[in-house]
Amino acid sequence: MSRGPSPASRALFSMLGVLFIFIGIVLIILGLLSPTGRVQAGGLILIGPIPLILGGELSPILLLIMILLPIIIFILMLFFLLLQRISMEERG
Fold this sequence. Notes:
Mean pLDDT: 81
Largest sheet: 2 strands, antiparallel
Number of domains: 1
Strand content: 5-15%
Shape: elongated
Number of strands: 2
Helix content: 55-70%
Order of helices and strands: HEEH
Number of helices: 2
Distance between the termini: 8 Å
Strand order of the largest sheet: 1-2
Radius of gyration: 18 Å
C-alpha cells in the first residue's frame, strides 16, 4: 500500500497550480493595460487557515471574498482528503 497522493491527484494539483499562475499573469497584464489615475494595493497572507488582510481602502465585497476564500479552500481540501482516505480504505 503506497502512502501519499495518487499520481492522478498529483497531476490535478500540478495543472491547477499552472492554471492559477496563468490566471495571475493575465490579471497582472489586464491591470497594467487598464487606464486609471489612481493605484491601490492590497494583499492576503495566509498563515495556516488564518487570513491576514493588508491594504488601503477595500470594498466590503472584496473584503468578504478575501475572508471567505481561504475558508472555502480549507473546507474543500478537508473534503478532498476525506474522500481520498475513504477510497484508500475501500482498496484495503
